[in-house]
Amino acid sequence: MKKHLFPLFLLFIGINASAQQDFFALVGKDSPNIIFNDFRAIDANNVISGETIFTETSSAKVFSQTRNGAVTEDKNTYNNAQAVNMATLAYDTSNNNLVYMPMFSSNIYVLNAKSREITLVENNVARVTACDINSHFTRMTTGYDGSIYALNNVGTQFIKISKTGNQYSVVDLGTITDDTANAKNSFTTMETGFGGDMIADAEGNFYVFSASGNVFKVVTKDLKARFIGKISGIPDSYSVNGSAVNAKGNVVIASAKGGSLYEVDLNTLQAKQLPGEQNLHIYDLASKYFANDKAVSGNVFANIDIYPTRVDEKLININVNDKAVKGNIRLNVFDLSGKNVMKHSLSVKEGSLNQQVYLRNLVSGAYLVNITDESGKVLLNKKIVVTE
User: Fold this and answer.
1) How far is it, in rounded angstroms, from Cα 275 to Cα 252?
2) Which candidate, 139, 152, 200, 385, has a CA 20 to 30 Å from the CA of 207?
3) Are 336 and 366 within 8 A, CB to CB?
4) Has residue 18 got a pLDDT over 50?
5) Which tens digit of pLDDT belongs to each residue from 350-360?
6) CA–CA separation, 179 vs 157, rounded Å?
7) Strand ranges inside 58-187, DSSP E
């Protein structure tokens, strides 16, 4: 097996940190209260707002999964796609969807970032009551397996949102409790563990960032939250409300109170202020990246991509729109041991290609897709998850 590992690591040297639409923010109004304004793409390196995807005043086309048809929602309730109080956001890279939940509601909304159509996933798994703020879901992220995970304020519900075919399902994974070593740095109390956001790593674990700046590692096999430290380098009054991993593998944090965004080294928990817009009121952040990921996606060319990354029918689309890419390109698929399990050649004409490739004989699991040009130069590295 070792003979495969060295070339596999070579695949991932050099990450393109240029701005792409793979980092998103849930932004609120300039107000001390939580008031939803919009979902937008954001350049996480330079903190520059990009495309606005959906706003409080956008025309909402909502399709109910349960009722199998379009619905009209009451905008005066908490149970609607443009509710005032929202604090959760995740990016489903497989389908280019933004997934979110209003704070006072158990409804789950799936917004297609391209078509702007919304799927309402009603569920009776999330037990949210307006009078119990502990029950509200304030943290959400995409896991390394491609599913969406959400957590309520005190960890009594940790839910998994998965898609099979065209249907979403919700499962309660249980209660997350404090590790015995946490002592006064409790995950389940308002002073130290309340609110905030969470990210996922490449080993199937999660990191929860509380509003106070405390960071907890959640090991899913035992549902224990272990306190690993407090973020340093941010103002004492800074409220950590959004977190997402950037292309460099560091965590970007943001505050609902406005102010700067910061980049945090997950190993040291040292924060560095980022340039760019300084007064964004951000309630949550979402991205396609994971902490501790040796297979971070690397695009040498901005206009070459594969999708979806969560593959349900063993078909992926290869899209090239870059005149610098010419002639034949080769697609290689590696399993996580580094073994090349598939090869395929494609022809690019005048810098353009849009073709489907059938992933024959691939069993369920995670794979690394590598695309090179005729000279062997790496054009794209990307992780996919094949499901059956």
Assistant:
1) 12
2) 385
3) yes
4) no
5) 888 889 999 98
6) 17
7) 61-64, 69-71, 90-92, 97-100, 108-112, 117-121, 137-142, 148-152, 158-164, 167-172, 177-178
Residue of 126, 128, 129, 133 lying closest to 148 (CA atoms): 126
pTM beyond cutoff 0.90: no
Q: What's the pLDDT tens digit per position in 172-229?
A: 999 999 999 999 999 999 888 899 999 999 888 999 999 999 999 999 889 999 999 9
- The rounded distance, in Å, linking the Cα atoms of 371 and 333 is 9
CA dist 333 and 330 (Å) reads 10
Residue pair 36/84 in contact (Cβ under 8 Å)? The answer is: yes
- CA 33 – CA 306 distance, rounded (Å): 40
Task: Report whether 12 contacts 298 (CB < 8 A).
Answer: yes
DSSP one-letter string for 328-371: EEEEEEEETTS-EEEEEEEEEBTTEEEEEEE-TTPPSEEEEEEE
Q: Is 169 exposed, middle or buried (0-12, 13-18, 19+ CB in 10 A)?
A: middle
Identify the bridge partners of residue 177 per DSSP, sorted by sequence position.
224
User: What integer is the mean pLDDT of 12-28?
Assistant: 63
For the CA atoms of 289, 3, 330, 16, what is the dihedral angle to 10 degrees? 30
* Cα torsion 346, 347, 351, 353: sign: negative
Contact 280, 257 (CB under 8 A): no
Tens-place pLDDT, residues 136-172: 999 999 998 889 999 999 999 999 999 888 899 999 9
pLDDT digits (tens, 9 = 90+) for 54-100: 999 999 999 999 999 999 999 989 999 999 999 999 999 877 899 99
Taking phi first (over 0 means left), then psi (-120 to 50 degrees means alpha), and beta for anything else, what does residue 382 get? beta
